[in-house]
């Protein structure tokens, strides 16, 4: 189950500051850089020693075509992580013909603004795999398939790992969201074979590197948790969880991909035996087995749903993850097809999801997307911290405040109160980010405290003699005193 208290550790320069737009590769393909040549990026002396460049556990993903628009916000955020995809079919267009210029440029540009990079290794679909692309997105972005020659694949992994560990990368994920046919055209057994081969090649090239699973999609994770609750005999809890998790997805898909509401355990069981849920559950079981066998050293979670379902989601996944394996969320965001929701509500959701993740012991959180991308495949439904016109939203400022609270390897702990949700951050100063579970919760004043309602409205400063009433909007409170003052406050 979730750790009561966990250090938000920043494992050496491996986090990729990334708020992506949509599900991972749902972003438009990256435009080619100037000349498709074999590029070489010399690491700085600091990076060659493997020092951690990241300042806090929060990151973001952006569309590289809009990097110049994103750059000022990323610089203000002040460090963190993003991820970069390195695809065999893109860097080796034909046998022996290599071109690393695009991922080289991305890792370099992220580094230049103080961000580390996480790498997702994918095969794609081309001469190195059987068959032809079934799902083409953007400029040559396709699903992955099993390599025809595992020696070719091992060579690709070896070269990629040696190349990017020199630039400070220490975490490598094997594929992306294998539960989705848009990203993986194979079987769970084939994925397990690929993952074992990749892990062997990664550790041969860099013994200290961390191998990360592909995760399943956010839309798939709810099925996994609901199925697990059913298996534990928690039928009513499973139905409630499913309805909360998918409430924004009902009626948004058709055919085999539809996600339908349920009102009873019997209806939920019927839903879980459909092809989509069965695929999701089978891939998560394969990942669970690989984690248990030590093939993966990091568990990855993707989440875009109702924040109220996140605590149970993380608790269930933590319970199915080895105790010594950290959890990271390379993709956290908000999926919603209602664009009329006011910004202060969106801000509250960004804060709540991020704080719940950190409080549950998640060691890296990447918001996706940083910038709204209305032209992307899911651009109409994924909430960016910056508007399509380039205007920062209130949620961006709040995300930055959370990054500062979590800096310096802060110890993050969930709030232990039935009345209040949130987390405390214990570092050079003590910070509480909290909101009422329901209704309003009055709190007595704290001496030497300052605070902010996380929509840019200052509610007190300096003296700490102003009483506070918690409601649905998160409040951030900071004091120079010990973090235990907040524990006493919330009793």
Structural write-up:
The chain is an alpha/beta fold and 491 residues long. It has 2 domains: 10-222 and 259-407, Glycosidases (TIM Barrel, Alpha-Beta Barrel), CATH 3.20.20.80; 415-489, Immunoglobulin-like. Helix content is 33%, strand content 18%. It has helices spanning 45-48, 67-77, 88-91, 101-112, 150-165, 188-205, 218-231, 235-246, 265-272, 275-292, 310-319, 343-359, 394-405, 484-489, and strands at 6-7, 58-60, 80-87, 92-94, 97-98, 115-122, 144-145, 171-174, 184-185, 210-212, 299-303, 327-332, 365-367, 411-414, 420-426, 430-436, 441-443, 449-453, 457-460, 468-470, 475-479. The strands form 6 sheets. Strands 1-14-15-16-21-18-19 form a 7-stranded antiparallel sheet, covered by helices on one side. The protein has a 4-stranded parallel sheet with strand order 2-13-12-11. Strand 15 and strand 16 form a beta hairpin. Helix 7 (218-231) packs antiparallel against helix 8 (235-246) and helix 7 packs across helix 9 (265-272). Residues 1-53 and 457-463 have low confidence and may be disordered.
What class would the helix/strand composition place it in?
alpha/beta
Counting DSSP H or I runs of 4 or more residues, the number of helices is: 14
Kindly report the name of the CATH homologous superfamily of the largest domain: Glycosidases
Helix content: 25-40%
**Numbering strands along the chain, what is their spatial order in the largest sheet?**
1-14-15-16-21-18-19
The CATH topology of the largest domain: TIM Barrel
CATH architectural designation of the largest domain: Alpha-Beta Barrel
Number of strands: 21
CATH class of the largest domain: Alpha Beta
- The coarse overall form would be globular
Q: Quickly count the domains.
A: 2
Mean pLDDT: 85
